[in-house]
C-alpha cells in the first residue's frame, strides 16, 4: 500500500499533462483495484476465477466423498458444514446444493468468466497491437459486475434455506417453487440475481472484445493475419453477445413466475408438501428449456473456443511449425460458431419434443463433428515432423487435444437421438461433458497460463511442479471420467447421492470409491498449481529476454513488464501472418518483420 | 477436528512441502547445469512419458473394459424391441468412433514422442495442403451422414405411432414416486383435473368422479363427473406389463419435471406437468425370465427418475413387473377400481398415502368436495 502511495507522489507531477500512451495518475486503488488496464483486469478475472475453481473443486470433493463412501460418516464434515452434515453425513439438501453450485461455478464463473475474461482481456490488445480495449471503462465494469455476481452467488451459500439445489440448468417448475425444494426459496433468488449480473458482465466484456478486434488492430494486422487465439476469442465473444440475452430473458420470466404470479412455465401443479393445487394453468415448462439451451449450447463453445485458440497457438509455437491449415482453422471456428446456435434442442430429445424436429437437430448436431474433426487433424499435422519443445504450456496443449478427441467422440453418441434415449442423464453424459468441456477447457486454460505467465508477471512458473501438475491431472482425469462411460452404459442416472437401494445400479460401489479417491488426489494437485502460481508471481525465476518462447506474435515485442499502453513509443507494425516458424531455414520470423525480397511464399 | 483428520492434513502438507522442495531444487540444478542441458533433459523425459502414457493408457482402456463391461447392460439382450435397435446403433457408433479414437490418440502421442526436440532436426515448414484438408472434411462428413442415417431410421421407428393393439398405461410422477393408472374394463381413461387431487380421499390423480364446482382464478368451473373413470385402476406398487404385448405409456407429472427412465428397455421420457408425453415399446422377457438371463435372482425392472426433481430424486423408484398374459389377467382380476361411491365421506376412506398428517390442513378443494 505504502509502496503504491510513494509511486503516486513521484509519478503524479511527471505525468500530469501526458495523455494517451502513459495514462497513469495512479493510486493503488486505480492501479490494482478499479484498474482500466486490460492486463490488470485480466489478472483480476484470472485470480477470481482461480478462487472460484478452488471452491467449486472442493465442492466436488465433498460430494464425491458421499458418492464414494455412502455408508461412512466423516465427523470433520460437520465441523466445516455444520447442519449440512449432521453426524458427518452430507444431507440430500446439501448434496444437491453442492452439485448445483459446483456446476454453476465451474461452467460460468470459472470456465466462462475466468477463462475468456482472462485471456480475451490479456491477449486481444497485446496480440493485435492495441494500447488497450476499445472501452477500458466498460472493461473495468465488466470485471466488477463479475465480482458483484460472485459475491451474491457466494452469499447464497450462507442463507438458512441453503443455496439453489435444483441442478445448474435450473429447470422450472423445480426452480420456480420454493415448496418443491428448499433450495428454490431465497437461494434461487440470489442465484438468479448473481447470474443476471454475470450476464451483464459477459455482455460488457464481449461487446468490448468484438469492437476491439474489429477496430483497434495495428497497421498491417489484417483479419487473416490474426493469431488463432484472437479469432477464437472473437467468435467466443460473438457467441456470448448473441446468446446470453436469451438466457437472461428466460431468467426474467422465471422471476415473474416465482414472484409475479405469472404462468410462463407453470401449469397443472399440485404440491403435496402443502396440499395445494397452484393457480397456474397454461404455461410450458419446456419453454424454459428452449431459452436456457439457446444459451446453454453456445455456452459449451464459449468455454471451448478460447481453449482451442490457445492450444492452436501454443502447439504451433512449441512445434516450431506454422499451424497447419490456418484458413481451415478459422473456417472451422466460424462453422462451429454458426452451428452452435442451431443445435440447442439436442439437450431435449426426451422432453416430448416433436420427433421430426428432433431429427433436424440430430443432423445439425452431428454436423459439428466435421469442423471439430478438421481441427483435430490439423493439430495432428501441426505436430507432425515438428521439433517439439515440451514446455509446460505445450504439454497441456497436447493434453487438450487428447481430451478433446476423447470427449468429442462421445458427443457423437449423445447427439444421436436414438442413443440419447438410452444415455440421456446418465453417467455417460457426465463423462462426456467433463472430458470435453470441463477438463479439456481447463487444459487449454492451464496451457495459456503457463505460456503467458512470463508476459503477465515477468517471471516463470516452476516447470517441475508444472510437469507434475500435468501428468497427475491428465492421468487422473482419464481415471475419473473414462470408467464413468461404463456406468452410463449401465443406465446409471446422474444426480443420485446413493445407489445402494437400486438393484440396477448398485454394482459400481468399488468403482465409485476409486473415482472419489482419484478425484481427491487430482484436487490436491491443483492446489499445487495454485501454490506454484502465487509463489511464482513473487519468487519465480525472472524472465530476462523479451521473447522467451521464440514466438512471432506481437505480445512478445512489448517490454517484459509492459505498462499501461503496452508499448513504449510506437505501436509495432505488422507485415506477415503469425505463423512463420522454421521458414526458409530461420527458426521464426516475428510478425513485425517486413517480407524479404527473396522470401518464399506460403 | 479428529486426530486422523489432523494426521491426514499433516501428511498432505508434508507431501506438498517435499514436492515443492524437489521442484525448487531442480530449478537450482538446472541453473548449475546450464539452461540448455536442463531443457534437453526435461524434454527427453516428457517425450518418453508421452509414449509411456500412450502404452499404459491403451492397456488401461483394455483392462477397464475387461473389468467394467460385464457390469453394463450390454452383456445381456435388451428387454424391449426398441432397445435392440438402440443396442445395434450403439455398436455401430462404438465401432466407428473407436477406430477414430485409437488412430488419433496413437498418432498424437506417437508424434509427440517421435518429433520431440533434437538439435539435428529441422521442423518442416508445412502451412497447408488443400487436398489433405478436403480429405478430412469429406471423410468425416460422409461417415457422419452414415451415422445420422442409421440413427434417424431407428429414431423414427422408436418414436412412431404405437400399434393399434397396444395396451395403455398412464404413469404419473410426483415428488418422489410414481402412480400408475389402468383404464379399466371400458378401456377408457376417465377425465381428471389437477385441482380435484385429494390425497386424503384417495384421489391422487384428481379424477373427476363427481359433479363439482371448482373455484379457480378464472371463476367457478363446473366439472361434470366422468363415468368412464369409475372403473379406472390406480396403483402405486408396480406397473404390470405383458410380455410380447406393445404398451403405450402416457406420461404425466403432478408437480415438477420427472423422467421415466427404463434402463433395461433402453427407454426414457420426461414427465412434464401440464404437457402429457408418450412412449411405447414391447417387453420381450418377463421379470422371471430376466432373472435367469441376468443371472441375478433379485432382478427387477426398475423405473429410475432421470430428471433432477428435488431432494428425494435419488430415491424415486418405480417397479415394472413383466408377466405372461395369463398372469396379467389374474392380477387384473384382483384389482379393484379406485372409485368408491359408498365411502365418499372423508373419515371412512382409507388414506392411501403417508401424507395423512398434512391433510388436516387441506385446501379449499377439499372443503368444496366435502360440502357436496
From TrEMBL, chain A:
Q: Membrane topology for this entry?
A: Multi-pass membrane protein
Pfam families tied to this protein: COX1
A single GO molecular function term of this UniProt record: heme binding
**Residue ranges of the Cytochrome oxidase subunit I profile domain?**
28-593
Which GO biological-process labels does this protein carry? aerobic respiration; electron transport coupled proton transport; respiratory electron transport chain
Q: What is its main location?
A: membrane
What does the sequence similarity comment in the record state about its family?
Answer: Belongs to the heme-copper respiratory oxidase family.
Output this protein's name: Cytochrome c oxidase subunit I
Q: What species is this protein from?
A: Niastella yeongjuensis
Which taxonomic lineage is given here?
Bacteria, Pseudomonadati, Bacteroidota, Chitinophagia, Chitinophagales
From TrEMBL, chain B:
Which GO BP annotation is one of this protein's? ATP synthesis coupled electron transport
Matching entries from Gene3D superfamilies are given as: 1.10.287.90, Cupredoxins - blue copper proteins (2.60.40.420)
Instruction: Provide this UniProt record's keywords sorted from A to Z.
Output: Copper, Electron transport, Membrane, Metal-binding, Respiratory chain, Translocase, Transmembrane, Transmembrane helix, Transport
List required co-factors: Cu cation
> What EC number(s) would the UniProt record show?
7.1.1.9
Q: How does it sit in the membrane?
A: Multi-pass membrane protein
Q: Any transmembrane segments, and where?
A: 6-26, 47-69, 89-113, 134-156
On cofactor binding, the record's note says: Binds a copper A center.
> What catalytic activity does the UniProt entry give for this protein?
4 Fe(II)-[cytochrome c] + O2 + 8 H(+)(in) = 4 Fe(III)-[cytochrome c] + 2 H2O + 4 H(+)(out)
- The chain positions of domain Cytochrome oxidase subunit II copper A binding read 164-334
Q: What does this protein do?
A: Subunits I and II form the functional core of the enzyme complex. Electrons originating in cytochrome c are transferred via heme a and Cu(A) to the binuclear center formed by heme a3 and Cu(B).
Task: Describe the family membership recorded for this protein in Swiss-Prot or TrEMBL.
Answer: Belongs to the cytochrome c oxidase subunit 2 family.
Q: Which PANTHER family match?
A: CYTOCHROME C OXIDASE SUBUNIT 2, CYTOCHROME C OXIDASE, SUBUNIT II
What is the name of this protein? Answer: Cytochrome c oxidase subunit 2
What is the species of this protein?
Answer: Niastella yeongjuensis
Amino acid at each position: 500500500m505504502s509502496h503504491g502511495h510513494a509511486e503516486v507522489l513521484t509519478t503524479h507531477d511527471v505525468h500530469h499533462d501526458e495523455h494517451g500512451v502513459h495514462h497513469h495518475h495512479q493510486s493503488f486503488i486505480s492501479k490494482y483495484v478499479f484498474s482500466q488496464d486490460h492486463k490488470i483486469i485480466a489478472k483480476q478475472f484470472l485470480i477470481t476465477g482461480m478462487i472460484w475453481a478452488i471452491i467449486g473443486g472442493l465442492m466436488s470433493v465433498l460430494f464425491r466423498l458421499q458418492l464414494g463412501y455412502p455408508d461412512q460418516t466423516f465427523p470433520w464434515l460437520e465441523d466445516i458444514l455444520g447442519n449440512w452434515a449432521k453426524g458427518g453425513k452430507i444431507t440430500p439438501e446439501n448434496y444437491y446444493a453442492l452439485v448445483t453450485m459446483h456446476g454453476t461455478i465451474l461452467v460460468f464463473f470459472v470456465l466462462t468468466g475466468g477463462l475468456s475474461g482472462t485471456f480475451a482481456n490479456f491477449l486481444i490488445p497485446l496480440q493485435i497491437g492495441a494500447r488497450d480495449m476499445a472501452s477500458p471503462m466498460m472493461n473495468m465494469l465488466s470485471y466488477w459486475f463479475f465480482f458483484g455476481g460472485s459475491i451474491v452467488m457466494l452469499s447464497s451459500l450462507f442463507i438458512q434455506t441453503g443455496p439453489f439445489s435444483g441442478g445448474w440448468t435450473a429447470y422450472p417448475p423445480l426452480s420456480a417453487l420454493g415448496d418443491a425444494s428448499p433450495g428454490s426459496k431465497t437461494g434461487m433468488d440470489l442465484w438468479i440475481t448473481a447470474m443476471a449480473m454475470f450476464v451483464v458482465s459477459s455482455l460488457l466484456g464481449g461487446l468490448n472484445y468484438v469492437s476491439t478486434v474489429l477496430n483497434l488492430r495495428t497497421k498491417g494486422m489484417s483479419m487473416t493475419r490474426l493469431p488463432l487465439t484472437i479469432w477464437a476469442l472473437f467468435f467466443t465473444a460473438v457467441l456470448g453477445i448473441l446468446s446470453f440475452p436469451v438466457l437472461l430473458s428466460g431468467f426474467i420470466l422465471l422471476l415473474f413466475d416465482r414472484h409475479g404470479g405469472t404462468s410462463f412455465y407453470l401449469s397443472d401443479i399440485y404440491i403435496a408438501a402443502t396440499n395445494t393445487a397452484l393457480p397456474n394453468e397454461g404455461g410450458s415448462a419446456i419453454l424454459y428449456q428452449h431459452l436456457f439451451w439457446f444459451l446453454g449450447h453456445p455456452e459449451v463453445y464459449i468455454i471451448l473456443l478460447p481453449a482451442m485458440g490457445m492450444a492452436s497457438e501454443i502447439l504451433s509455437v512449441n512445434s516450431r511449425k506454422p499451424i497447419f491449415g490456418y484458413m481451415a482453422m478459422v473456417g472451422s471456428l466460424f462453422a462451429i460458431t454458426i452451428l452452435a446456435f442451431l443445435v440447442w434442442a439436442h439437450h431435449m430429445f426426451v422432453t416430448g419434443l416433436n420427433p421430426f424436429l428432433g431429427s433436424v437437430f440430430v443432423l445439425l448436431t452431428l454436423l459439428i463433428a466435421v469442423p471439430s474433426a478438421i481441427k483435430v487433424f490439423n493439430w495432428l499435422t501441426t505436430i507432425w515432423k515438428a521439433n517439439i519443445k515440451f514446455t509446460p504450456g505445450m504439454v497441456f496443449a497436447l493434453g487438450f487435444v487428447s481430451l478433446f478427441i476423447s470427449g468429442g467422440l462421445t458427443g457423437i453418441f449423445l447427439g444421436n437421438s436414438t442413443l440419447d434415449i438410452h444415455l440421456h442423464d446418465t453417467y455417460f453424459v457426465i463423462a462426456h461433458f467433463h472430458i470435453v468441456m470441463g477438463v479439456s477447457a481447463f487444459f487449454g486454460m492451464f496451457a495459456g497460463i503457463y505460456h503467458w505467465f512470463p508476459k503477465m508477471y515477468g517471471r516463470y512458473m516452476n516447470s517441475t511442479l508444472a510437469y507434475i501438475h500435468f501428468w497427475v491431472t491428465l492421468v487422473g482425469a482419464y481415471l475419473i471420467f473414462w470408467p464413468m462411460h461404463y456406468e452410463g452404459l449401465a443406465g446409471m442416472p446422474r444426480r443420485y447421492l446413493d445407489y445402494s437401494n437400486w438393484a440396477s445400479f448398485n454394482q459400481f460401489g468399488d468403482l465409485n470409491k476409486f473415482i472419489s479417491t482419484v478425484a481427491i488426489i487430482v484436487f490436491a494437485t491443483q492446489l499445487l498449481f495454485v501454490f506454484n502460481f502465487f509463489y511464482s508471481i513473487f519468487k519465480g525465476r525472472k524472465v530476462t529476454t523479451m521473447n522467451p518462447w521464440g514466438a512471432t506474435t506481437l505480445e512478445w515485442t512489448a517490454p517484459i513488464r509492459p505498462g499501461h499502453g503496452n508499448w513504449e513509443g510506437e505501436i509495432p507494425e505488422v507485415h506477415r501472418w503469425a505463423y512463420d516458424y522454421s521458414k526458409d531455414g530461420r527458426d521464426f520470423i516475428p510478425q513485425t518483420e517486413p517480407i524479404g525480397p527473396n522470401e518464399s511464399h506460403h | 477436528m479428529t486426530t486422523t483428520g489432523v494426521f491426514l492434513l499433516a501428511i498432505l502438507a508434508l507431501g506438498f512441502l517435499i514436492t515443492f522442495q524437489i521442484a525448487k531444487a531442480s530449478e537450482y540444478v538446472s541453473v548449475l547445469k546450464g539452461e540448455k542441458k536442463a531443457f534437453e533433459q526435461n524434454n527427453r523425459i516428457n517425450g518418453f512419458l508421452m509414449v509411456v502414457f500412450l502404452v499404459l493408457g491403451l492397456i488401461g482402456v483394455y483392462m477397464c473394459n475387461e473389468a467394467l463391461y460385464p457390469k453394463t447392460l450390454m452383456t445381456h439382450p435388451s428387454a424391449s424391441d426398441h432397445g435392440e435397435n438402440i443396442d445395434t446403433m450403439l455398436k455401430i457408433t462404438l465401432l466407428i468412433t473407436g477406430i477414430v479414437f485409437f488412430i488419433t490418440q496413437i498418432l498424437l502421442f506417437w508424434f509427440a514422442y517421435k518429433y520431440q526436440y533434437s538439435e539435428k532436426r529441422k521442423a518442416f515448414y508445412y502451412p497447408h495442403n488443400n487436398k489433405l484438408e478436403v480429405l478430412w472434411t469429406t471423410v468425416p462428413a460422409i461417415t457422419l451422414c452414415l451415422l445420422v442415417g442409421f440413427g434417424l431410421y431407428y429414431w423414427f421407428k422408436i418414436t412412431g405411432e404405437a400399434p393399434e393393439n397396444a395396451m395403455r398405461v398412464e404413469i404419473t410422477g410426483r415428488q418422489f414416486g410414481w402412480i400408475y393408472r389402468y383404464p379399466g374394463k371400458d378401456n377408457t381413461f376417465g377425465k381428471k383435473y389437477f385441482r380435484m387431487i385429494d390425497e386424503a380421499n384417495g384421489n391422487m390423480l384428481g379424477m373427476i368422479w363427481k359433479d363439482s364446482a371448482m373455484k379457480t382464478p378464472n371463476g367457478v368451473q363446473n366439472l361434470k363427473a366422468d363415468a368412464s373413470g369409475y372403473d379406472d385402476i390406480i396403483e402405486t406398487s408396480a406397473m404390470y406389463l405383458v410380455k410380447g404385448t406393445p404398451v403405450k405409456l402416457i406420461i404425466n407429472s403432478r408437480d415438477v419435471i420427472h423422467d421415466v427412465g427404463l434402463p433395461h428397455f433402453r427407454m426414457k421420457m420426461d414427465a412434464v406437468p401440464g404437457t402429457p408425453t408418450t412412449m411405447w415399446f414391447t417387453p420381450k422377457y418377463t421379470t422371471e425370465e430376466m432373472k435367469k438371463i441376468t443371472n441375478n435372482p433379485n432382478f427387477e425392472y426398475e423405473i429410475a427418475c432421470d430428471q433432477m426433481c428435488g431432494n428425494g430424486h435419488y430415491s424415486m423408484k418405480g417397479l415394472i413387473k413383466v408377466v405372461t398374459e395369463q398372469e396379467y389377467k389374474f392380477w387384473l382380476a384382483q384389482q379393484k377400481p379406485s372409485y368408491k361411491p359408498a365411502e365418499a365421506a372423508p373419515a371412512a376412506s382409507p388414506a392411501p398415502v403417508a401424507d395423512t398428517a398434512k391433510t388436516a390442513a387441506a385446501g379449499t378443494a377439499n372443503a368444496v368436495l366435502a360440502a357436496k
